[in-house]
Write a structure and sequence with these properties.
The complex is a heterodimer of chains A (110) and B (113).
Chain A: E1 4-7, E2 10-14, E3 19-25, E4 31-37, E5 43-48, E6 52-56, E7 59-64, E8 69-74, E9 83-90, E10 99-100, E11 104-109
Parallel strand pairs in A: 2-11
Antiparallel strand pairs in A: 1-3, 3-8, 4-5, 4-9, 6-7, 7-8, 9-10, 9-11
Chain B: E1 4-7, E2 10-13, E3 18-25, E4 31-37, E5 44-50, E6 53-57, E7 64-70, E8 73-79, E9 87-94, E10 103-104, E11 108-112
Parallel strand pairs in B: 2-11
Antiparallel strand pairs in B: 1-3, 3-8, 4-5, 4-9, 5-6, 7-8, 9-10, 9-11
């Protein structure tokens, strides 16, 4: 199956700093999603981004499918950005499963 | 009203108990999923239902039994669980199959004594 590697595993920032989270995957994908899991366990879908670049407020993501990686950018980080960020990928065919990475634990200190 | 709801939010059960987890989605989606999230491990897909039909069973032990009576409701029936089954159980839904954006519920934190 597809392997998903996320880096760094842990990241500690001061409020206001910028950061880049990386997701590498081992095979071609037609489906890539970024999620944020808050400290209470709720997973929120941030981006559906199998290729290209998207932006949503202070967050943006870029996927370079030909080179099998995706980046999540967080600018001007806030304490509410703390939590675990997961990348999940899949072949994209109907019924195919998403494979999740192990996540990046982000802590933003005030 | 949140899109995907799960009950109960917390559950403590003994190894001989029988309990059920419930998931309901209010998004008009056709696919629903159960995931298991154990400490320090990635989310593991357990079951997938598309249009009420089970399309995937990821080698899950039979002590976990899913039920999908309609496209809006998904249950996970639990019996004779083991302590290692303690985890956060997450339900998700998507409009179509796994290729679509998945929306997650808040999860049920299960502890097996």
């Amino acid at each position: 199956g597809i392997q998903v590697e996320q880096s760094p595993p842990d990241l500690i920032l001061q409020e206001g700093a910028n950061s880049t989270l990386r997701c590498n995957f081992s095979d071609s994908v037609n489906n890539l999603q970024w999620f944020h899991q808050n400290p209470w366990g709720q997973l929120i879908n941030l981006f559906y981004i199998p290729s290209g670049t998207k932006q949503n407020g202070r967050l943006s993501a870029t996927t370079v499918a030909t080179e099998r990686y995706s980046l999540l950018y967080i600018s001007s980080s806030q304490t509410t950005d703390s939590g675990v960020y997961f990348c999940a990928v899949g072949p994209g065919t109907s019924g195919s499963r998403l494979t999740f990475g192990e996540g990046t634990q982000l802590t933003v200190n005030p | 009203e949140t899109g995907v709801t799960q009950t109960p939010r917390h559950l403590v059960m003994g190894m001989t108990n029988k309990k059920s987890l419930k998931c309901e989605q209010h998004l008009g989606h056709n696919a629903m999923y159960w995931y298991k999230q154990s400490a320090k491990k990635p989310l593991e897909l357990m079951f997938v239902y598309n249009f009420k039909e089970q399309t995937e069973n990821n080698s899950v032990p039979s002590r976990f039994s899913p039920e999908c009576p309609n496209s809006s409701h998904l249950f996970l029936h639990l019996h004779t669980l083991q302590p290692e089954d303690s985890a956060l159980y997450l339900c998700a839904s998507s409009l179509g199959g796994s290729a679509d954006t998945q929306y997650f519920g808040p999860g049920t934190r299960l502890t097996v004594l």
